[in-house]
Amino acid sequence: MTSIREQILLAVMAAVRPTAEGLGATVHRSPTVAISREQCPALVVFPESDAITERANDRVTRELTVRIVALARAVPPVAPETEADRLLTAAHAALMADLNLGGLALGIREQECEWEVEDADAVAAAIPARYAITYRTLARDISSPG
């Protein structure tokens, strides 16, 4: 049995994958090596933290923070920031289309977004956005919804 947390991460990947691939992007979860030029544009999903926010009887409310990063490289005449923004905008819409992720979550809240531009082998832009996903489990079993 997998935890509700893992099921949520799989649901996030499933939500953003069709949109990202429709825009010609690759989709990755927590890669351990850098995304290559050939893999760009890319959408990368990282779980960042999972915190307990409330305990009531045998139920635990949790908040999973997920970072979704849109990566793009310069392909003139389009600026990499514009391409990364287009990808993140589409991923955001796909993720927010089902705020309960098929019943796994209580809700999704957008937290923040940043911009990073680097002069790598071609100018690269990364736009990381963070989302807080609230969900509930049983105190004794994190694979059972609460």
What does the model show?
By secondary structure, this protein is α+β, with helices and mostly antiparallel strands. The chain has two helices and seven strands. Strands 1, 2, 3, 4, 5, 6 and 7 form a seven-stranded mixed sheet that branches. Strand 5 and strand 6 form a beta hairpin. The longest helix is centred in the N-terminal third of the chain and has 19 residues, at 4-22. The protein is elongated.
Secondary-structure element order, N to C: HEEEHEEEE
Low-confidence stretches: none
Overall shape: it is elongated
Distance between the termini: 16 Å
Structural class: alpha+beta
- Calculate Rg over CA atoms: 16 Å
What's the total helix number?
2
Per DSSP E runs of 2 or more residues, the count of β-strands stands at 7
The amount of beta strand, in percent, is over 45%
In round numbers, the mean pLDDT is: 92
User: What level of helicity do the residues show?
Assistant: 10-25%
Short description:
This protein is of the alpha+beta class and 146 residues long. It has helices at 4-22, 80-96; strands spanning 26-29, 42-56, 59-73, 107-113, 116-119, 123-138, 141-145. 25% of the residues lie in helices and 45% in strands.
